[in-house]
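Morning run. Coffee first, then this:
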Amino acid sequence: MEHVNVYTVRTAADAGDPPGYVAPRAKLGPMIDAAMIGGSVYDLEPGESVCPYHCEHGNEEWLLVIEGRPTLRRAAGDGELEEVLDPGDVVCFPPGPAGAHKVSNGSEASARVLLLSTMVDPDITYYPDSEKYGVWPGGDEDGFLVRRESAVDYYDGEL
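And here it is:
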C-alpha cells in the first residue's frame, strides 16, 4: 500500500484557473491506488476559493481543515451560512441541495484543506449561483456544463 502525507504533499495549480479560484491541488486517489473514495489537498492563498458554490448529486463530500482558517459557505435549512473554520475541523456535505458548499480563504494567511468524496459515476453537480449543471460521466475530461435555461423538451430531436 502506498501512502501520502497531507502536510507535505506538493500541490499544483491548473493553468485555466481564473483569479479567485486559483487552488493548487494534489489528487491523492491515484497516488494511493484508491478507486471508491477520492481526495484532494488544496492550498488556498488569501482571496482564493476551491470552486464555486455547488452541491453534488449522488456523492458525499467531507472537508478537513489541515492549516489556516478558511471560510465555509454552506446550505443551512432554507438559507445559507458562512463560518470561519479552524485547523482540525471536519464537515460533511451530503448529496443534494442540503450539501451545497464553497470553501474560500478570507484570511490574510494561507490555508490547506483536504476534500474527500465518494466516487459515484456519473458525477452530477449543480451550481446555484449560476444555474448550471455539470455532468461528468467517466471523469473530469469527459464532462460538460449546461445552464438550466437550456432545457429542451423530452422528445426534442427524436424520430
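The helical segments are 28-31. Good start to the day.
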